[in-house]
Design goal:
It is built from five helices and no strands. It is mainly α and 89 residues long. Helix 3 packs across helix 4. GO terms for molecular function: DNA binding.
């Protein structure tokens, strides 16, 4: 690639650098990205999250997110994922 020097002028993620050095089709689909590690929310999980939010939103002096996380049916979710999903919904 005669214009590869231009790519060196911009910041890269580790996945992009790997592709530049090993070839652009060397990464499998979704590999090297953070999104591939996060499982998407199912409609059932979203409904459960919505119900838990409405149940605990009036809780005074407590951590609403901690209360929701304690009652989520899927324990693999992080606090950040729960907050991000609540904001998105």
């Amino acid at each position: 690639n005669k214009k590869a020097f231009v790519e060196l002028l911009f910041w890269k993620s580790p996945a992009a650098v790997y592709e530049m050095t090993k070839g652009y089709s060397s990464l499998q689909e979704g590999e090297g990205t953070t999104r591939s590690r996060v499982s998407p929310w199912t409609p059932q999980e979203e409904q459960e999250l919505r119900e838990l939010y409405w149940k605990y939103k009036e809780m005074e002096g407590g951590d609403i997110i901690a209360a929701i996380m304690a009652h989520l049916p899927t324990p693999g979710r992080t606090r950040r994922q729960v907050v991000k999903q609540l904001v998105r919904m």
